[in-house]
């Protein structure tokens, strides 16, 4: 994309992805016109050294030619049609012809000599699969572009983004952490010890964030309140993470102290 990411803040980016998920009609602005929705995924039987084998129709001729040259294939898939990415894996001791390796590397696909995966950007699996199939057909017909540029899928250039229509982002009812935090905030001072100890965040974007950045995001007032309560950097960082997840400073302090109590009791029991 040619749009400078610096022009868009985190709040805008979140709004963009919420719209991308929730509004399928608006999402069509980013659909690729190169995908062929009529692509058919069929298999055919071919005779190989080990006997009759069913392979995907679009790459059958190439699989047959490889095996006729003594390059034995183990697994293959033409990809496309919303399925897995296109790939070919050879049996141990086999290696693709250099002209194919050159073309695939030029196309930007992963290959180590005995396998190839025609992967690319998320959402471009079908396009890459079609280009992969084309490279194999060209090879069979003696028309392979060894530079790979014919098969390379370029990142679409977008000079401007369509305006995001007004909408309310969907609420994830399964977000139990958010629900628990709202319940604890509603209880306020009446929140029980067990309410706080049951609160678990799992790993999120704040988990590995350094203390200085946490303090900056939490804000001066919240950071000052938490620093009065904790002198230990670990506890202070934990409290700031809970503030950023939605707990008010005083409840974040109670949460961290509750966790400290549980940890201390567990340590005593191990002695």
Q: How are the secondary structure elements laid out?
A:
Elements: H1 10-22, H2 24-27, E1 43-48, E2 51-56, H3 60-68, E3 73-77, E4 87-90, H4 98-107, E5 110-111, E6 115-117, H5 125-140, H6 176-187, H7 193-197, H8 211-218, H9 220-229, H10 233-245, H11 249-270
Antiparallel strand pairs: 1-2, 3-4, 4-6, 5-6
Helix pairs in contact: 8-10, 9-10, 9-11, 10-11
How does this model look, in words?
Keywords: Plasmid. By secondary structure, this protein is α+β, with helices and mostly antiparallel strands. The protein folds into two domains: 43-140, no CATH class; 176-270, no CATH class. The chain is 45% helix and 10% strand. The protein has eleven helices and six strands. The chain has helices at residues 10-22, 24-27, 60-68, 98-107, 125-140, 176-187, 193-197, 211-218, 220-229, 233-245, 249-270; strands at residues 43-48, 51-56, 73-77, 87-90, 110-111, 115-117. A four-stranded antiparallel sheet has the order 3-4-6-5, with helices on one face. Strands 1-2 form a two-stranded antiparallel ribbon. A hairpin with a 3-residue loop joins strand 5 (110-111) and strand 6. Helix 8 packs across helix 10 (233-245).
């Amino acid at each position: 994309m040619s749009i400078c990411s610096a022009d868009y803040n985190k709040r805008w980016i979140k709004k963009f992805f919420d719209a991308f998920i929730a509004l399928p009609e608006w999402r069509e602005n980013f659909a690729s016109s190169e995908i062929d929705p009529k692509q058919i995924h069929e298999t055919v039987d071919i005779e190989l050294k080990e006997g009759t084998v069913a392979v995907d129709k679009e790459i059958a001729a190439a699989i047959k030619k490889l095996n006729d040259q003594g390059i034995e294939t183990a697994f293959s898939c033409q990809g496309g049609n919303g399925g897995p990415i296109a790939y070919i894996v050879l049996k141990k001791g086999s290696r693709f012809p250099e002209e194919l390796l050159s073309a695939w590397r030029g196309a930007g696909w992963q290959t180590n000599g005995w396998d190839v995966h025609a992967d690319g950007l998320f959402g471009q699996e079908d396009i890459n699969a079609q280009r992969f199939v084309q490279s194999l057909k060209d090879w069979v017909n003696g028309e392979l572009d060894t530079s790979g540029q014919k098969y390379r899928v370029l990142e679409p250039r977008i000079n401007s983004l369509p305006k995001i229509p007004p909408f309310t982002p969907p609420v994830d009812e399964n977000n139990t952490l958010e629900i628990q935090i709202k319940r604890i905030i509603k209880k306020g001072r009446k929140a029980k010890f067990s309410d706080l100890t049951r609160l678990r965040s799992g790993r999120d974007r704040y988990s590995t964030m350094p203390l200085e950045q946490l303090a900056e995001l939490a804000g001066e007032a919240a950071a000052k309140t938490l620093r009065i309560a904790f002198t230990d950097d670990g506890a202070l960082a934990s409290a700031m993470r809970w503030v950023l997840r939605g707990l008010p400073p005083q409840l974040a302090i109670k949460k961290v102290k509750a966790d400290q109590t549980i940890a201390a009791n567990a340590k005593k029991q191990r002695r």
